[in-house]
Write a structure and sequence with these properties.
- By secondary structure, this protein is α+β, with helices and mostly antiparallel strands.
- It contains three helices and eight strands.
- The strands form two sheets. Strands 1, 2, 4, 6, 7 and 8 form a six-stranded antiparallel beta sheet that branches.
- Keywords: Signal.
Length: about 230
Amino acid sequence: MRTHTGRTRPAVIALAAALLAGGLGYGATQTLPTGPTDPGSTDTIVNAAAGQSQKKSPHPKGPCAIGEKKITNKKFVKTVYEWPDDPAHVQSMPGPAKNTWEYKVDFGGKVSATFGLSYGVINAGLGFEINKTEGFSKKVELNLKDKAHYLVRTGRVYKQYQFDVHEQHADFLWATSTSARCSDYYWVKKGSATALRPWTGTYRVQKVTKPKTHAAPAQQTSGITG
């Protein structure tokens, strides 16, 4: 029988040598080229993450303060009376007598706090002009029955309201050193305040007597005008 051993072995040896020279032999490691298109490149991934973090990083100052404010939860609280103690609002009268008396009173509204709101925004939120002066006048008949000294006093009548002030905020979606984007808008309560609305004028009559020991309180009457 004819054998080809002598011819085959040199060819096999030559092929193995060629494969080893090309780096594809048993136990060889193939190194792929690295670059931007290489998903396995550690340096590329780290650099990309750092760039993304620099573009959209959390803002260090917390929520966005948009600044828009509004009045909410307005409600009536009570009627408030003021009795100024000055010559323009107090008149002396002797009795007994029947007098026709005309009183006049001019006054404006009041607000306990504005939280930075303009009067225009406050007026719109409350439904009346807080900074407008109202004038009230009326003639009344006074019947001073006793022989005594009387004081007639003019008063102011307000309607008091309570309200809240809210400011619009948002959360930073992302921010850089030169720009920011806000998202998820919501309202934050800044505080509460009261407002006095001019309602009408009024008067009261007080009989003044000489002070005595254990004297009874002075008698007085009052009337509210519309």
